[in-house]
Description:
- The chain is mostly helical.
- The chain has one domain (42-310).
- 75% of the residues lie in helices and 0% in strands.
- The chain is built from 14 helices and no strands.
- The longest helix is centred in the middle third of the chain and has 30 residues, at 156-185.
- It is elongated, with a radius of gyration of 31 Å.
- It starts with 6 loop residues before the first helix and ends with a helix.
- The mean pLDDT is 81.
Amino acid sequence: MDKNLSPADGTRLREATVQEEVPRSANTASTLSPRPAPKLNTSPVHGLWALTKRDLKKWFTNPYQLLITLIQPAVWLGLFGKALNFGSFISSTGASVDAQNKILFNTFGTTSYFSFLACGMLASIILFTASFSGMSVVFDRRFGFLNKALSTPVGRGAVVMAKVFQSVGRSLSQAAIVLAIAVVLGMDTASFTVPGVAGAFLFLFLMSMGLSSLFVMLALKSSNWQTQMAIINLLNLPLLFASNSLFPTTIMPSWLQAVVKINPVSYSNDGVRQLLLGSPGFNALWFDYAYLIGFAGFFSIVGIVLSWRLLSK
Length: 313
């Protein structure tokens, strides 16, 4: 401080300095104040996508799991489909090629049993993938993730449908690979068209949607993976063999034909074969679509409604 200043001037100088520092400190405090927390996105679509993406990410980052799931349909196509050569059986009776093709077409709707079986394998891979959709609910419950998901603003219906959609995504991806394998092994592609392939995968989508909803619904209260495996084994093989996946309905006994005609797998096979092979179906395409839309819609709605009552921490 200047020695020539009087005591009164020094006091006034100190007061002015304090007044300048107070606003500066206030500005600094306001700058360092915590920012408001970001607003949570409570949209049902956002929660549905986040949960679906989580399950799909676990699947496509594990290529061994994908490889293992493709072994069974590849074995059916490569071994069973090629070994069961009905054309050779017919030709061994001395029938001409024209007579052989006529018998095959009247029986299978195509002159190639392998092509008939290939369409059934598309439904088979959908069925087996969908049947394991409920296992994800069981393991999420056992490892505590389900409790965390139910503690968020995401609705219980979104939790259920996320399991369904991840199963649908996996099923359709694997079905596309199985179709490519079948084409390489000799599937008849003369009737393939872009709209036909797209329509066939729409059938597979609807079947996967309904079956995935069914198996997720059956796992809502389950915490024991052995119980869920027993349910899978109880349902998936009857659904496969009591359908037209492996053999046409016309050669089955009458009591089994009645079961086949209520099996949703049969309606998917019927539509896929009409679109990919040009086979005459036992139903019109619109009826096959209507049946599967009703099947998928019914079990999706039932699964969501039951989740409000059964899905708990």
